[in-house]
Please model this.
Amino acid sequence: MLQLEPTGWFSWEFTIVRGDRTVASLDISSWRDRGELVVDGGTYAVVREGLVSSDFRLSTADGVTVATATKPSILRRRFDVVHAGRTWTLQPRSAWGRAMTLLTNGREAGDITPGGMWTRRATATLPGELPLPVQVFVVWLAVLLWKRESDASVAASY
Model:
């Protein structure tokens, strides 16, 4: 189980802890939905494919693609994540909440659950067959969706 801890009150940077050990940190850039993941000392880049695309690529520091994520519809909060030839679907548990479910072959394989309504703390229970960098990428995608929703609600309040 992974615990997500925001690094500051208004920050979209997180520390990820497993047990009593920090295993990763993630950052979502405010510019063009990019990010950097540091997992067990290794650095990974999350890059958006194209200017208007909602597709992302997770790469090692030397440019090797580890996983990709495709958002099949701009109207839905869902990503299809491909790693090692296998597709996983990250989607909301319900239309109203922030909790996310990770599916494989239509069956639940894991989830990412916020710690409460007013916090960005969360818990991720993801399958061990996904390497830790891919698990952190899936968490990054969930946090990205939460950030987009937060940005949209702030913009709508003006």
